[in-house]
Amino acid sequence: MTTSYLLHGSQMLPLLQDSSAREFARQFSSVHLAERPMASLSISAHLDTLEQGGCRPKAVIASSAHRDVFHPVMKATSRNSPIHEFYGHSQKLYQRNPVDQAYDFRRAARASHNDMHEGAPEAQSHNTIEASKHFDFLVIGSGVAGLRYALAVAKFGSVAIVTKSEPQESNTMYAQGGVSAVLDPADSVESHIRDTIVAGAFLCDEETVEVVCREGPERVRELIAWGALFDQSEDGQLHLAREGGHSHHRIVHAADMTGREIERALLTAVRTNPNISMFEHHVAVDLLTLQDGATVVCYGVDTLDMKKQKVVRFIGGVTMLASGGAGHVYPTTTNPLVATGDGVALAQRAHAVVSNMEFVQFHPTALADEGLPIKPEKRENAFLITEAMRGAGGILYNQSMERFMPLYDSRGELAPRDMVARSIDDQLKKRKEKFVYLDISHKPRDEILAHFPNIAAECLKYGLDITKEPIPVVPAAHYMCGGVQTGLLGDTSIEGLFAAGEVTCTGLHGANRLASNSLLEALVFAQRAVEPSVAYAFQMGGKKAEVEKVENECQHPVVAMDLKEDELKEVLCFTELQRKRLQHIMWDYVGIIRSTERLEVAQRKLSELEAEWKDHLVRNGWKPRMVNLEVCEMRNLISVANLVVSSALVRQESRGLHYTTDFPMLVESARLPTILFPSSSMKTWNSKLVHRMEVETR
After folding, report:
1. What is the pTM of this model?
2. In the chain, is it the N or the C terminus that has fewer CB atoms within a 10 Å radius of its CB?
3. Pair type for strands 659-660 and 58-61
4. Which residues form a coiled coil (predicted)?
């Protein structure tokens, strides 16, 4: 017997117990989400609709025979059918000259905007709202997934990349290790598949793993063609490193700054592409979605232009969600400040299926500032010490210079990240110490400086020479293995919304990500989403009525300009305090080692925090539909934190990144993903200011 789960208030409840659950977990297109509420589908008219009662949706699992009712793009996930069988006109699209492609959708969107300009909602006349912008493809995020996708679809139409900060400020930029791919004749795809599944604690989707591992080498060659410069051996071949969990040398890298090099190469290509427009400092507020029968359809996104302090609406044929992770749900993270779980929260509010949120990866070795000779000023994010250093022979010691990893795992320092992080955590708690040491100084100086120049320079800045001394390290939140559920073509449960990168849960990582598989996954799924995206954008041509409905029914957010200065200051100050409080709740109660009691405490504290925050904003003049950066990020962090805690509570076993003292063993019958369906009683406050997901079984 197998079980899938729904999130029900503060509990996860079993939804289905039969043999089809495992198949569903692998290919969620067998789900039919019926009776979706209009209240959840427009960006700001929710309040009135909800107050009038709204509709109540159901989340039901249908048999696999009903998978085609999900939405048209899901049909393309049929493993034996080429996509043109489902999109009869797509071949014509590909035969057209990209320069001459003027999609009907773009024309319809622009025409509808002009036709109804005078009859638009009153808010549109506000001087803090700009005219809607229309593109064939919208990309939310400017990391490797978003840039790779944008470059591919730009051959077929106009592309807008909406990014929260500067384009390079993404998790990609901070990735040190590299991209894993089978490029050595002594290696094999089968070996890469096996390593991935073992690291993922056998919760990986095996078909996804095979697809990614087989397509990886071609994606690496594409990066090189775009100008990415990777390290080479003396014979001119790519230098392949080895990292924890890998049985072979297969990590393509650019010293210890691989992400930076990939981001540089892709951004260079993007900036020279006339079909791609980059919108910096635009915060995604909410997806624009409407009901279409039994399906939710995405038409774009509302954003806040931080520099102009104006709301900008983007309408597009296809929206690609590539917004990265949620590391800042914890106080110590290797992620940049932009990683606040925006994509998962946006998709969740729009009723997307989300899964495996309990699996938060803590990187074992972030630089421990407390152990440096010269103490840095407070960092925005922890400095990562790459997995590749252990792969190159780095050894972990406690502060008595006793090697400890062989006591926990026969693979020693090359064990997967979940095992290494728990081992370090155990040492710190037993010895009441703040950090351990990672030592690479026994290697030749020139070799260290050649492979780890960035780390060497950072440590030397604070008085530490890594060629002579060990590096103080400590675990830090690093990567979300859960996220928006996607199929093999990057398709989500929302029609017109695709997703790639860390924001997703593709099934590749299972319960724990194998080192250097994240950039690989982003590259593979960004490419796999191209063909169905183009086909869908072409299919959207001529849907003028739908575009008009979006513009008429989806009210704009409102910039918080009407608050008095002291009110706004009070809101921002309290929001910052509550954000720090949330992060410490997650660190103290939902960290590397968990227990049912501590998770329940976290759930209660998060609920209290959310209520206090909401009440404080209202008392200080916050109005429906008001938005600013800090408030948007806070509501997203609350959503993600609640998803992580609720998912962790239901998994009554220890698997991969989720270790609980109450259930310390693996349970074979629990070897299933945790799947969170859309709510049947969605509740929003002040036009999606705060959202709490409740799902009920029917």
Report:
1. 0.81
2. N
3. unpaired
4. 592-619
Query: What's the token pair of residue 329?
Result: 């749900």
Query: In whole angstroms, what is the distance from residue 313 CA to residue 557 CA?
Result: 9
* Enclosing H/E stretch for 95: helix 90-95
Burial of 234 (0-12, 13-18, 19+ CB in 10 A): exposed
Handedness of CA 348, 344, 501, 261 (dihedral sign): positive
Q: How far is CA 53 from the centre of its chain?
A: 33
Q: What is the pLDDT of residue 246?
A: 95
CA atoms within 13 A on the CB side of 566: 1
Task: Pick out the chain residues at pLDDT < 50.
Answer: 1-126, 680-698
> 507 φ, ψ to 5°?
100, -5
Residue 2 has what pLDDT? 30
Catalytic residue among 67, 106, 417, 422: 417
CA distance 298 to 554: 12
Neighbour count for residue 378 (Cβ, 10 Å)? 6
Q: List the structure tokens of 275.
A: 């079909």
Sheet holding 504-505, edge to edge: 504-505, 483-485, 354-355, 675-676
The encoded tokens of residue 599 equal: 């998770």
State both tokens at 311. 């709301």
Map tokens 């029609």 to a residue: 495
Residue tagged 């500067």 (tokens) = 166
Residue 528 annotated in active site: no
Strand stretches in 62-163, DSSP E: 133-140, 159-162
Encode 500-563 in three state secondary structure.
Answer: CCCCEECCCCCCCCCCCCHHHHHHHHHHHCHHHHHHHHHHCCCCHHHHHHHHHHCCCCEECCCC
pLDDT score of 542: 62
Q: Choose among 259, 212, 194: nearest CA to 525.
A: 212
Tell me the sheet residues that pair with 476. Answer: 363
Chain mean position to CA 186: 33
d(CA 217, CA 200): 21
For residue 366, give the H/E element and its range: strand 360-367
pLDDT value for 552: 81
CA angle 558, 562, 565 (to 5 degrees): 130
For residue 75, the model assigns a pLDDT of 33
What are the backbone angles phi and psi of residue 670, rounded to the nearest 5°?
-95, 10
* 29: Cα separation from own chain's centroid: 20
What's the gap between Cα 60 and its chain centre? 25
Task: State the pairing for strand pair 276-279/240-241.
Answer: unpaired
- 104-134 b/e (C-beta count within 10 Å ≥ 16 → b): bbbebbeebbeeeeeebbeebeeebbeebbb
Tell me how far apart the alpha carbons of residues 100 and 607 are, in angstroms, rounded to a whole number: 53
DSSP 8-state code for residue 450: H
Gap between the Cα atoms of 311 and 460, Å rounded: 44
Contact indicator for 56, 99 with CB cutoff of 8 Å: no
- Residue 609: its H or E element: helix 596-619
The residues near 280 (Cβ < 8 Å, ≥ 6 apart) are 163, 165, 166, 167, 307
CA-CA-CA-CA torsion for 111, 115, 120, 125, nearest 10 degrees? 80
Q: How many CA atoms lie within 13 A of 679 on its CB side?
A: 22
Helix (H, G, I), strand (E, B) or coil at 629: helix
> What is the bridge-based pairing of β-strands 659-660 and 593-594?
parallel
| Cα 218 to Cα 51, 247, 255, 524, distances in angstroms | 52, 21, 21, 9
* CA-closest candidate to residue 7, choices 603, 497, 608: 603
**Distances in Å between the alpha carbon of 347 and those of 188, 322, 332, 540, 564?**
36, 11, 25, 21, 32
Per the CB < 8 A criterion, the answer to whether 674 and 652 are in contact is no
| Two structure tokens written together for 509 | 């990582």
Pairing of strands 276-279, 282-292: unpaired
